[in-house]
Prior knowledge:
single chain; alpha+beta; Thiol Ester Dehydrase, Chain A; ten-stranded antiparallel sheet; 4 helices; 10 strands; 40% strand; globular
Amino acid sequence: MFSQTRRIEYSHLAPDKMVSIPDMLRFMQDTAVAHTTACGYSLEKLSSLKRAWLLLSTHIIFNKPISFPADVKVTTWTYDFARSFGPRAFVISNPGTAEKYAEAATFWAYVDSETGVPKELPKDSAEVYGDDGASSVSYIRRAPCFEAKEHFVDFSVLKRDLDSNHHMNNVKYIEYALEAISDDLQILEIEIYYRHSAFWGEKISLFTEWEDESHIILNIKNKVQETCTYVRFTVRKR
């Protein structure tokens, strides 16, 4: 396992004065990068190998909001690596009490950074990354098939949305998706599956609908109406 302690700053807060969901996802993203660097596979080394880790899905369960000021401990570990794929678990907790604020399971592909084609994992990957047991949260291995019908809004991908791979950062999809969630709803769980990348200047469209009384589904589509990202929110009234 690999852990980092993060100080919650004012800039991490949402309008409800609790840590925003996008910032919690960024904590996870940063800790994953720090872990792979500590394992000897820094971004620079991966770039020299023309390889990258591509996030395919995220399933996160929120147990308790994080207030300000506070420190949080972000812990990550890997398990069940096979061929070109593997899950990674996360826990965001109180470093003093070990109370869990959020738990997540993500699913990744090891790919050619130029073509996006999955490649065989390095022979030492199981040894250097380790296998610390499955997460209590299930990871999403395959794309959902739902189609939300209600057009909500269109956005254009801006430069500020891009990451080091020159496509829209994974967290940005959720920032846009959250626009469809009203303030009177508390988000308990999010399931995200990334299918296609979006790029600078591209128009993306959000389609949403209630699946049932506690689930909202959302498709983020590109200009040719392919779903870039599937999102399912589990919610309840505040």
